[in-house]
Amino acid sequence: MRPWLALAEHDIAFEEEVLNIYDPASKAKILSYSPAGKMPILIDGENTIWDSLAILETLADKFPQLDLWPKDPAARGLARSVSAEMHSGFVPLRKAMPMNLKRAPAEPKAGFAADVKADIRRICDIFTEARTRFGTRGDFLFGAFSAADCMFAPVATRLRTYAVKLDTPCADYVEAIHNLGSFKRWKAAALQETWTQPDYDAL
Fold this sequence. Notes:
Layout: H1 2-9, H2 27-33, E1 41-44, E2 47-50, H3 52-62, H4 73-88, H5 91-96, H6 114-133, H7 147-161, H8 168-179, H9 181-190, H10 198-201
Antiparallel strand pairs: 1-2
């Protein structure tokens, strides 16, 4: 989702190939594109870039006019820091609240464990800090839509899917992500996928 939003929101033409990463038969195809065996993967001419954050950095370099990272140095530093934190952290939340757009909004069947609550608090603190310091002139973390919003879009869906009660600034940000035109297109396409992941549905 993350690089897709960056490309689609800025009307950058690209060809997309969708693979079910949970299907063992897909592994060979993924490995043929990237030795890491993970997705997403960007193929740009002779260059292959894998990992969402690496792809976003590549797009920022390739299309500097899009301002994928904020221009203000302080805002850009915070945007990169929280994006890296999102990319590598929040493991308890990821395990307890996997992304599942087809799930009817409701709390996890096991409730919210203490470490998951701590992750939610930290994420909401990030939203509040970014929007208070740099996002007052727009709906997103740093005002205009940026790479940081691409990084936090998946967790915004989790917060809604698992019916997390949010204060107003955080709820407004989650709403802004769901109202984003590119997100709506991505979600509509995702809901057309026919495969299921039973262990996700059981949570």
